[in-house]
């Protein structure tokens, strides 16, 4: 008999579905199909599109594209380079938060940390401000959040020093949450050598000491976010490669495998993939939205992935837990790698 488990529909608050603008890498259909295959019934999409989502008009075009294509639920973040504050009140009811890139990454929309304080002042909402903030900018972040304690989510915390910052902020009572990616939990700078471009992302893979620190301080990690960042194989084999790795289809099996190895509990897994992201990002939950997972072991194979990018840094890994059925608001939407609903069946979250 096949061992099957049931979990609530998972929520990934950090994906890059590349639509509009770079749909050779992914689009709203393939990206949300990959989400269902990975057990995610809600994703929240980042604003670093080819044309960054920094105006109401671009946001509306993006939402219109998503409406026609998505097969799971989706929300969006707004972007800023520090020069579009007049747009904030126009978009605040249509997005799940504001994203600020304080370090170089895909898209090149880096904001100088000295502008952070003005951005915080202009964001007059309780919806979170999400930061791409690596070690070198954390002092500025601490100062800004201390002066203006607005809800802040630090994305893809990757090192001991970054997590220590989050712990310090939490212990100071600041409204700070954080996410960690599966690649920083399961890969290190040693793997980067053999993966070459396929192990290249921001923040970079870190040492075993950093990785051990993340696992040892899991209680401070609110969310495990895939940072699904698809690029084509050609872009990852180029010199230099582009930053980012896909992750929607591998996050859950990696964590269920870690659970089987005693590295985290089922409760800790559900908190980080469902309960906490729902609370932090205001995602409605529904008890008729759930996933069923076959707990047999299998091997991650690039050709079996449904993301348009067609590869994973975890190809060849033996894992436990393949999603075989997804039910969204009592409707069966996915079974055995087949999507059972029309494109556009997903809901747009506001
Ligand atoms: C992301 C991308 O490709 O959009 N890349 C990455 O390396 N993580 C951007 C980001 O999250 O920084
Ligand atoms: Zn980032
Ligand atoms: Zn990202």
Provide structural commentary.
This protein has 350 residues and is an alpha/beta fold. The chain has one domain: TIM Barrel. Helix content is 31%, strand content 20%. It is built from twelve helices and 14 strands. The chain has helices spanning 28-37, 56-69, 88-91, 116-122, 138-147, 160-171, 182-186, 189-195, 208-216, 233-237, 251-260, 266-281; strands spanning 4-8, 10-15, 40-45, 73-76, 78-79, 98-101, 129-132, 152-154, 176-180, 223-224, 290-299, 318-328, 331-335, 338-339. Strands 5-6-7-8-9-10 form a six-stranded parallel beta sheet. It has a five-stranded antiparallel beta sheet with strand order 1-11-12-13-14. Strands 2-3-4 form a three-stranded parallel beta sheet. The longest helix has 16 residues, at 266-281. The termini are far apart. The structure holds N-carbamoyl-L-aspartate and zinc ion (2 copies). One zinc ion binds at residues 14, 16, 46, 227, 229.
